[in-house]
Amino acid sequence: MASGTESSEAATAGPPPSVEEIRTTALAALVDADSEVVLDQWRVAYLGRKSDLTNVLRSISSLPAEDRKTVGASANQLRGALEEALAEKAQELKAGPSEIADALDVTLPGRRRRSGGLHPTTQTIREITDAFGAMGFQIAEGPEIEWERYNFDALNIPADHPARDQWDTFWLDSPDGKGRSDMLLRTHTSPMQARLMEQTDPPIRVVIPGRCFRYEATDATHEWHFFQVEGLAVDRGITFADMKGTLFEFARRIFGPERKVRFRVDFFPFVEPGAEMAIDCFKCNGQGCSMCKGTGWIEIMGAGMVHPAVLRNVGYDPEVYTGFAFGMGVERIAMLRHGIDDVRQFASGDLRFLSQF
Ligand code: DAH
After folding, report:
1. pLDDT for 3
2. pLDDT higher than 70, residue 84
3. Ligand 1: does its nearest atom lie under 6 Å from the Cβ of 269?
């Protein structure tokens, strides 16, 4: 026989496929069978009289004795498996297209799970407290319902003091329902200064975030409830320079390392001297723009040296201890940082606003 004929014959017939090869091709072909006609063709091709599997089974007797057992067992096992797969597929086709398979379009893009986030106020509180935390300040919180004594008296704001007018107050009704009690919704976080000093001996370095309330009409820059972060540092020998250095460092951490700060005299009954701290406008770098209303400066907090009367009220000796205190509005800081123009957004619950942070 010419060698050319021999090789072409081999290409057509090839060596008979192994049991495992038959299994692979048969099962792969079954996946695509989508009608009873195709299924029947598959049965003929893989289980029929002329199928490779039948050929294998038929040839077993002619195999060397040592192969007979293993080939026979695996060929018979495959026949069982293919018959079972066929029956299953037939059942599937009879049941018709399954609802799940129909509903599952694997080519559709996945649905993104919407993740929540922290409220911009919470984020800002954390940034502020982190900045002071890095400078060794601890964090404390106090009650939102407060005694008149802590909110006003302990802070050197006596009942007849005109400064009380600055804090229009939500008073709680007295128990008998006639008139107001001596409890209120705190108008600032400063009462925690007095509470902490009463409970602790110096040294104290603490920041106090919390919600405050004021009985006033709302507009773009006023809310009846808002957050403040209070700060207090008391020890032997604390000076105004310590205060300036600490608050300067805070401003740089929150508003950028190139920030400048300005302190001007201001009045708060619980500090002496009192100051208002401003940063140079980070939008125009102090040139004057709409953000800083042309002044080049933006006020961010009140501060001062703790008033000797406040120290005495809590039982500290003002000859031994000195300290500084400060307080800032959280929403105001957030508004400046993010260019938010209406404080009422914070409590609006509007996802179009909230999801931007
Ligand atoms: N409690 C003041 C307010 O609500 C803010 C403040 C000013 C707090 C000066 C202070 C301070 O601790 O020293 O307007």
Report:
1. 45
2. yes
3. no
